[in-house]
């Protein structure tokens, strides 16, 4: 019935908001903002009606969760970085129908997921920052999915992504884009050193690691990347343990996916972290490569962290 038209890995660095304001950081994230605007334009051309955001700032300690309330609006200040995002207005139209369809299919495929329609919960800035630049006119509806998952397995997150794709294609009458909102390496600059790292990555190791991973993306070598993801997430300080990336790859077909990523905002450092905007062509998939739950637990123990 429905169509998954586009997938993307997107940055949500709060310095994008600072980039709007007069002062020493004016336009410092112009390239990242333009990357969001390009993704928005592609979605509009493809007839997308809803953006589903895997948000690595939405922390959950049990199950997976979908915020699909009818409308969220207000003024947002980040509790993490209130000197970066302060009094930012937001207004996001939700899609309760799609949110419930997504949750129903995830549960049918054994991934415990709850859709929240009647809630006062507002989206986190992993959703609000992309919506600010991709959706200022509320052209799209938007749904937020928890992706800072503290006791979850990466393979289960991949299965959630695949289940959500099948939910759209089998049960939704519309066109959807999936966005993984999170960084690559995510080691913030040490306290007191943040100004020196405004446009830098914390260490040469992390920067080289990110570049090596992006080479695999641009080569379309997802078999290698998926095998390396648990260790990359751990040793690269992956944001949200990189559950957003696992979800996105689940949407794309996991290791059976073979298309190169299109880098629309070149890799950049921000407060010590590694960032990128990248688009992934959505191709026909069977879901055969999406990992089973038990494989996730085995791989997790291999790397010494049961959350992975």
Shape estimate: globular
Helix and strand composition category: alpha/beta
Give the biggest sheet. Answer: 8 strands, mixed
- State the low-pLDDT regions, or none: 298-308
Figure out the total of helices. 9
Give the total of beta strands.
10
Give the strand order, joined by hyphens, for the main sheet.
6-3-7-2-8-1-10-9
Distance between the termini: 34 Å
SSE topology string: EHHEEEEHEHEHEHHHEEH
Mean pLDDT: 95
Radius of gyration: 18 Å
Q: Fraction of residues in helices?
A: 25-40%
Q: Oligomeric form of this entry?
A: single chain
| Strand-residue proportion | 15-25%
Break the fold down into its secondary structure elements and pairings.
Elements lengths: L2 E8 L4 H4 L11 H16 L4 E11 L3 E4 L3 E6 L11 E6 L2 H13 L4 E4 L8 H10 L6 E9 L4 H18 L3 E7 L22 H16 L2 H14 L7 H10 L9 E9 L2 E8 L12 H10 L6
Parallel strand pairs: 1-8, 2-7, 2-8, 3-6
Antiparallel strand pairs: 1-10, 3-7, 4-5, 9-10
Helix pairs in contact: 3-5, 5-8, 5-9, 6-7
Give a short synopsis of this structure.
The protein has nine helices and ten strands.
Structure description:
With 308 residues, the protein is of the alpha/beta class. It is 36% helix and 23% strand. The protein contains nine helices and ten strands. The protein has an eight-stranded mixed sheet, sandwiched between helices. Helix 3 crosses helix 5, helix 5 packs antiparallel against helix 9 and helix 6 packs antiparallel against helix 7. The chain is globular.
Fill in the keyword field for this structure.
single chain; 9 helices; 308 residues; 10 strands; alpha/beta; 8-stranded mixed sheet
